[in-house]
Amino acid sequence: LQEVMWEMIQSPQQHYQRLTSLLRRIRDAPDASRELERWGLRLDTDIYKTQGHVLPGERINLRHRSFLPAEELGWHREVTKEAPIAAISINSWLLVYPKRLQHLAKDLLAALRSSCGSMGMQVGQPSVQELRDDRIESYVRSIQSSLGSQDKVQLLLCIIPGGRDDVYGAIKKLCCVQTPVPSQVINAQSLMGHPGKIRSVVQKVLLQINCKLGGQLWGVDIPL
């Protein structure tokens, strides 16, 4: 995924250089040139240039203020430090994790509580399910039991070991199909590291949770 993202976020100049390099390689490769000739095709060694139109920047609206994004067109810093348009308070939620990851669960909970205020959210104390192991059956049984014994669960938050796509798939199937409830699954590896990294992950998780529960992070003006 990181390699794909690296390909996608290159600058226009980098894209231009790579495409013109590819065109030159095709021209200089005898086999490629013969194949193009066989089809009656010819590739220019430069990309067609045309007049472009640069759209003005859009103003991003939060609950209490508006701003224009910086040149890199990101506004993560703003939406994690100020109240969004609509924030959902999390009062009834379930936290599930295996016993060997209890230290990460403790750090995650502390980071959630310390980060939510600046983002206009309130996060209450969860119902905690600490599993003896990280088998799929343990997660599914515990989640089913907890959801069945509680009246209204707004959110299920699970911490799973790194590289366990099977556990992720089982949890999502349970929460999306069998017992519908908004869910957030966090890979334990993303929580390992310095406190600043955990805080950054938690901020992104809170933004996702707010949207999943029906909140609205930001908006733009769309005039008639």
Automatic annotation (TrEMBL):
It comes from the Eukaryota. PROSITE patterns: PIWI. GO terms for molecular function: nucleic acid binding. Residues 155-224 form the Piwi domain. This is PIWL2 protein.
